[in-house]
Amino acid sequence: MIFGDLHWAYPLFLFLLLLLAPIIWLAKRKQVKNPGILFSAYAYIQRIQRDWNQYFRYCLTALRVLALIILVIILVRPQREVRVVDREIKNMDIMLVIDLSESMSAYDIRPYRLQVAKRVMRKFIQQRKRDRIGLVVFSGTAITVCPLTFDHEVLLESLGAVDMQTVSMEGTAMGDALLVAVNRLLHSREGIESSNPEAPPAKNQGKIVILATDGANNRGFEPMLAAQVIAKKGLKLYTIALGGKKPVLRYERDRRGDMVPVKDIYGRLQYWEEPDVETLESMADISGGRYFRAENTAQFNRIMSEIDRLEKRTIQLRRKHTFQEEYTWFLMGAMCLLLLEVVLRFIRFRNLA
User: Fold this and answer.
1) Are 80 and 5 in contact (CB under 8 A)?
2) DSSP single-letter state for residue 148
3) Which DSSP string corresponds to 162-204?
4) Separation between Cα atoms, residue 125 and residue 150, nearest integer Å
5) What is the distance between the terminal CA atoms of the chain, rounded to a whole angstrom?
6) Residue 222 C-alpha from the chain's centroid
């Protein structure tokens, strides 16, 4: 119920105003019953000059009635409506998982695979300013370099410090890395799935894992089982296979510091292991994500832009209706009227009370 720009929270209290009529009638009746003084001649009373105070004998009742009207208005709770429109942005939780196995030093993607991965991931992080992002790296084992955080400056510093020596154990423990990433997502501040296995997967919507690797799993937990865990928990996995489709020679430094091809004991040239494309595709399909192949820097950038487009943040407009209480002035007015009525009744009009 709105009158003008005021909103009345409890308009039914206005019916209390109907009680004012009996109150006024009772006050009038009380004044009529006041005892008088008997005179033998009414004409003599008429010659007595009336004092101006007599004209204000009903002023006391009027002040009290007006104060009661204001008090009823206060009970109705006058409010002024303030409309607020909020822009609600739901952030996402993203775990980046980067391979640090020896093959990431291959030069088929210039300057080399790991450096390109770090550059592209840096750009992706800078684009997702409102999301929590974490970083897991792996080779023969997996470690968390940076947990989920809104502090992207710290995350970028951690990413910049990553190199081939960050994880000392050799190998490719892809499954272990995915489990570490999942554990970080589920134990995040807003994640409750880990403490309640029966909770519906929808609880973890907006949580994704992005895996960048150039090899095949040869150590630790089975990647397909890790992908099944990801799917069961309601997460999404994007897999990116790094490297060209042609075999890539392995190089090493000789005693003079020159880069030379690696050969086995039989003199045969050695090549870097190819990415396990079939497994990466299956892992992405199980979780509802997508598989990508990045053969150069431009493709890698396009892939991360595509993931950025697919995983857009949810933006909602919420209209809030808030009300500001406006009873203060009414209360002050009622108090002033009652105070004035008391002062007049017991000081100036005491004999008329």
Assistant:
1) yes
2) E
3) --TTSS-S-S--HHHHHHHHHHHHHTSTT--GGG-TTS-GGGG
4) 10
5) 40
6) 35
Which single residue is written with the structure tokens 């370099």?
145
The three-class DSSP label of residue 7 is strand
Beta strands 251-253; 142-149: pairing state: unpaired
Q: Is the dihedral of CA 144, 150, 151, 155 positive or negative?
A: positive
Gap between the Cα atoms of 178 and 97, Å rounded: 7
Residue 12 DSSP code:
G
Alpha-carbon distance of 74 to 68, in angstroms, equals 10
- The encoded tokens of residue 12 equal 């039914």
Sequence-distant (≥ 6) Cβ neighbours of residue 38 within 8 angstroms: none
Contact residues for 199 (Cβ-Cβ < 8 A; gap 6+):
192, 193
Which domains, from first to last, does the chain contain? 2-83+324-352 (no CATH), 92-312 (3.40.50.410)
List of the chain residues with pLDDT < 70: 1-5, 27-58, 85-89, 189-204, 314-321, 348-353
Q: Report the amino acid identity of residue 116.
A: V
Gap between the Cα atoms of 241 and 218, Å rounded: 16
What's the pLDDT tens digit per position in 1-21? Answer: 445 567 777 788 777 777 777
- pLDDT score recorded for residue 269: 86
Helical ranges in the chain per DSSP H: 20-32, 42-47, 59-76, 113-127, 152-161, 174-186, 223-232, 277-287, 297-310, 328-343
